[in-house]
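Database export, one record per block. Field names are fixed; values are copied verbatim from the stored entry.
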Amino acid sequence: MNMGGGRVQQSTGQVTFVYEPTRADYAKAVRRFTFGTWPGLRGQVFLALFTLALSWTLPTLKGFSPTATAFVMACAVVAVLVTLPRVLARVAREQYADVEEYGACRTVVREDGLTTTGGELSSAIEWRVFPWYFETDEFFAIKTKNTRGVFVLPKRGAQDPADVDRLRALLDRNLRRI
């Protein structure tokens, strides 16, 4: 039942965001996914368990003393703690590089997916490619399930403050919030 005139059709049709992507947005999105969502945390738990299991199993099989095994385990944990921030920074750089060449982006989000245009480039993505999304105070991030892919939609790109709520409703209908 359409009680709001043409407004209901507009709110369910599409939402347009115009913005300049930034490396900081992608770095925050990768960190937020990794440490602030259940799939990201699950990956970190698996990484920790794998690291500890491997660093315990190999020295034990070689007949190392418990002290040497503990030392190997500690070194493995330190290596992961030193490497992880660098890996996350690299992932963010790679994701940002994918959209950097677009320059100023115009992203139209519809019920069937989203289309981003900028400069000479254009890309369309169906929702089945990005089944998850999460939101921060600064942006919406749409995330692939099995790869490191993330697409960031900064809230600063909303044409109208109501567009943020419309986008949230559209994403809730089509994707799983994490």
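Remark 1: The radius of gyration is 21 Å.
Remark 2: The chain has one domain: 13-177.
End of record.
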